[in-house]
Design brief:
Elements (H helix, E strand, L loop, with lengths): L13 H10 L10 H11 L2 E6 L6 H12 L6 H4 L10 H4 L4 E6 L10 H19 L11 H11 L5 E6 L12 H15 L5 E8 L16 E3 L15 H14 L7 H8 L2 E3 L2 E3 L2 H13 L16 H10 L4 H8 L4 E4 L13 H10 L4 E2 L13 E5 L3 H21 L3 H8 L3 H13 L9 H12 L5 E4 H4 L6 E5 L4 E9 L6 H14 L12 E10 L2 E6 L1
Parallel strand pairs: 1-4, 1-5, 2-3, 3-4, 13-14
Antiparallel strand pairs: 6-7, 8-10, 9-10, 11-12, 12-13, 14-15
Helix pairs in contact: 1-3, 9-11, 12-15, 15-18, 16-17
Length: 547
């Protein structure tokens, strides 16, 4: 059996396999024209570009494609002849003609707990690749990695390399990384890439830009392309309207009775604005299209929902607390907030100011820049109008806020409220409820389900069993609180109004409904005390009356 030579980092064939499988999916989008934008950088040599985008915007697929196209020792004609790049006059000149060093910086050694362990894996593996591929070069195994590469360049007729580096900033948010380690890492990249004849191109991707990590001139050779400050490459990260149109047309051919409209797809996964380009999150669209293939009746869902990244929103709320309540409410109601966005953030400064937190939500894809039609006001210099991009992200915000409220209420002293409830003190309940409402972050623009969740959340987790009409349908009151040990039950019928002046009348309507529908009757046999309350809500105010 013949085994082909394959490096761990040098000309690794796995990138070919990964991109080929991507291309063979039924819902594939051809982004290969980015290669034609890279050709001039390669021609000039000693070129360095860094493209930063949020997670899930196709950076790794792109990096795999770039590696598969350029690296030698593997013929990818079968793949790329079918794609847009094949029409480029420089297609054959560059396809499979380069040595490619591909490093995914998110990959960790087993049980990694130190920077030295992390970086040693990369250095030692790459040295082995180079020594095996270029055995005649005059170097020692203990030489620095860049010295070995310089030696190869000198002895192998100016041999050059394309460096493809994915998730360059991943290591910065690892728990074991210190400030000193961060600087060591920056120095490593600088020593490896800066001012070396062997670098044909270094193509680097990540979430956060380089600028602030590199305190001096270490990485100033990189041209940085962020989603806000540079137009170039915007169309390649995310799906455009026309690309999603094509995907949806494929879906319609496969599915005779479509369960989703084109507009629903837009509402759920569109909404990102990179320069002049409006783009969809590609990871979401692909996941949903594949789900529709398995289940044509599948409804749109949040594919970000169960990822660890969402903790960033929770930490944000925990940090800023009441100072950002109004802004969060504006965002979740579909509005815009005007904030200063700093793209040159570092992970260790994320929680140092409120400005940095908004910037982080923007850079990680939880907020996007508003288009001119979404925000008509004047923007001061350096300020940006931000909004939640789509229904998927809005759902994550709402879920996070609900959980935050549930957790927060457990810490708040509600004894005065509970005493008032069981003593039939409607004025006391009104006072305590209003105090709690002022501490909440509302969502759904104060719709009825906000108040349902608020009312149920107060009692849930405090030792009471709570039934909500939301779960049980018609025929019983909105919220029922049981104190079985003391054989008592509190029934709440809630109304909400859009005007302050209607608080009292809506409260009376709630009481009348308890009477008319005889909500208390089903509890008479099992409970000694049945307390019935009508409660009306207007924004962050309420009124409670006892029957």
């Amino acid at each position: 059996m013949h085994y082909t030579k394959m490096g761990f980092y040098l000309n690794n064939k796995s990138k070919v396999s990964l991109y080929k499988s991507e291309m063979q999916r039924p819902y594939f989008v051809d982004k290969t024209l980015i290669l034609s934008e890279l050709f001039p950088f390669i021609e000039s040599g000693n070129s360095h570009i860094c493209i930063t985008r949020p997670r899930r915007f196709g950076k790794t697929v792109m990096a795999n494609m770039i590696g598969a196209f350029f690296e030698k020792d593997e013929d990818t004609k079968e793949i790329f002849d079918q794609l847009k790049i094949s029409k480029s006059p420089e297609y054959e000149k560059h396809r499979n003609k380069h040595d490619v060093i591909y490093i995914d910086f998110s990959k960790m050694p087993e049980d990694c707990d130190s920077y030295d362990q992390y970086i040693s894996r990369i250095i030692n593996r790459l040295k082995k690749d180079l020594i095996r591929e270029y055995p005649d070069a005059d170097y020692e195994e203990e030489d620095a990695l860049w010295d070995i590469l310089d030696c190869i360049f000198d002895m192998y007729d100016g041999q050059k390399f394309i460096f493809v580096m994915d998730e360059w900033d991943c290591v910065f948010h690892k728990a074991f990384i210190t400030r000193e380690d961060q600087q060591k890492y920056i120095s490593f990249l600088s020593n490896l890439l800066k001012d070396h004849g062997y670098v044909e191109l270094s193509y680097m991707t990540g979430i956060l830009p380089i600028a602030k990590y590199s305190s001096g001139s270490e990485l100033n050779m990189f041209l940085e392309y962020t989603m806000a400050s540079e137009e170039k490459f915007n169309e390649y990260f995310g799906f455009t309207e026309s690309e999603v149109d094509d995907l949806f047309a494929k879906y319609l051919k496969i599915c005779e009775t479509p369960m989703i409209t084109r507009e629903q797809l837009r509402l759920w996964y569109d909404g990102y604005h990179f320069g002049d380009f409006d783009v969809y999150c590609p990871w979401d669209v692909m996941n949903y299209m594949l789900e529709l293939q398995r289940d044509p009746k599948a409804k749109p869902i949040s594919y970000w929902k169960n990822t660890s990244d969402n903790a960033i929103i929770r930490s944000f709320i925990d940090y800023a607390g009441s100072t950002i309540t109004k802004k969060l409410e504006t965002l979740m109601a579909g509005g815009c907030i005007v904030e200063r966005v700093d793209e040159n953030l570092t992970y260790d400064y994320l929680h140092s100011s409120e400005d940095n937190l908004w910037s982080t939500l923007y850079l990680t894809g939880y907020l996007t820049k508003a288009r001119e039609e979404d925000y008509k006001g004047e923007l001061p210099d350096g300020m940006v109008a931000l909004m939640i991009p789509n229904a998927e992200i809005k759902e994550i915000f709402e879920t996070t806020v609900i959980k935050w409220f549930d957790d927060s209420t457990k810490k708040w002293n509600r004894n005065a409220l509970f005493d008032a409830v069981w003593n039939g003190d409607s004025e006391g309940i009104t006072k305590e409820m209003n105090a709690l409402l002022r501490r909440t972050i509302s969502y759904h623009d104060y719709r009825e389900d906000f108040y349902h969740a608020f009312l149920a959340g107060i009692f849930t987790g405090a030792g009471y069993m709570v039934d909500s009409n939301k779960e049980h349908g018609e025929g019983r009151s909105d919220v029922v609180v049981y104190d079985s040990i003391n054989a008592r039950v509190a029934i709440f019928e809630a109304k909400y109004t859009k005007t302050l002046g209607n608080l009292e009348s809506e409260c009376e309507k709630a009481l009348q409904q308890i009477d008319d529908r005889m909500y208390a009757k089903e509890y008479e046999d099992d409970y000694d005390q049945i307390l019935c309350y009508g409660i009306s809500f207007f924004k962050k105010r309420c009124m409670v009356k006892k029957k």
